Each structure stands twice: as structure tokens, then as C-alpha cells.
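Database export, one record per block. Field names are fixed; values are copied verbatim from the stored entry.
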Amino acid sequence: MTNYDKKYDADDKYSLRGRVFQKLREDILSGRYKEHEELKEVAIGEELGVSRTPVREAFRQLELEGLIRIVPNKGAYVTGITAKDVKDIYMIRSLLEGLCARLATEKISKEQMEEMEENVYLADFHEEKGHLDQIAELDNRFHDILYEACDSKLLEHTLRDFHRYVLRVRQKTLATNTRGRASNDEHRKIMEAIKAGDAELAEKLANQHMINAYDNMVKNGLKEIYGENTEEDTDKK
């Protein structure tokens, strides 16, 4: 981030801290900052064009999320997301995505339903053409539509955070023809259940969709990305 947006209200420290926090979280989750790497207040402040205060405040928020560890009189060190964290996220997310799909069945608007249908059809088109980047974008958008349609700010916020936490591994493991096709087939079934008003089926399908996504990650790069074994890897040896 070379040109940090300085067009903020200088008195709005929460907004400034939020900007710094979002940037640092994105850099940690993308792998720019590695596990155990020290985050230096002065260097980050200079890079982002801010004082040390909002950086220090962002550090405290990152520590609350478990992404860094602050050692008194030493510094702040990246802990990041581990393979076990990814597994935990997907097990929790599977339940919450199921609940989201159930609520969406009851709350989804006509416009959201039409966009969801279009999303699935476009993903089919790009899958046939082998456009992996577009498939990934449409996959993300499908879940965004689902989150918006559930009409629960708290649930939407939680699921969006989980979605961001695993974006790094999702980008790699979704970029395979087999998973891209299977994922969109699962999206279609969820969409059809929601359209039919079958909340129980939509919940079940969304729950299984997350479990399938995690299983695919284990098979296609989770260990390599995070440099550690998963429980599934150990069981299969």
C-alpha cells in the first residue's frame, strides 16, 4: 500500500484505527507478514502515513482477534492463522452458514434471489471457459448475497470475518476445475432450496457445503500453505 488514503477526519480516531487495523489484518491473513515476524510501530506508521498511536490501537485489536501477540517491553509478533484455526473456522462456519441459509429462505428479496440465480449461471459459464479468477469472484459474491439475504447484521458480520480469515487458502484451493465445478453445483442446490422455500434443506446443504470446502482444502494445499500437518493428514498416514 504505497499511497495510504489520508483523506480522513483527523478527529475520528476510531475510523483511523479501523483503517490501520483492516490493512494490517489483510496483510497478516494474506501472508505478507509471516508467523513470528515482529511488527514495528514506527515502520508501519511511516508506511501508512500515520502516527504510532493508531498503529498501537490497531495492535491491541489484532491481539484480541488472536492474530498477533504483544510481549511487554519487547514488541508485537504475528501469530496469524494456523491450519487448526482454519479447521475450527470451517466447523463453526458450517453451522453458521446453515443458519444463514435458513434465515435467507425466509428473508431473501426478489432482487437478491434473481442475483443469486444469475451468479450460479455465470459461474457455470466461466467454469466451462476455464476462467478461474471469475469463478473465485463469483464464489465470493454468492456468499455475500447469502449473508445479505439473512437480514441479520450480527450473523453477517461474523461470517464475513470468517470468510476473510480463510481467503488466502480459499484462493489457492478453489482454483481447480474440479472444486470450482463442485462448489457451484452445491451453490445451485442451495439456491434452489431457498427459491423453493425449503429452509431445512437449505440449511443442510449450506452446512455440508462448508464441510466439503474444508475437505477440499485438506486435499489441495492446506498443509503447504500453513506449513503444518492437519489432524486429517495424520490420520491418513
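Remark 1: Residues 120 and 205 are 15 Å apart (CA to CA).
Remark 2: The chain is about 75% helix and 5% strand.
End of record.
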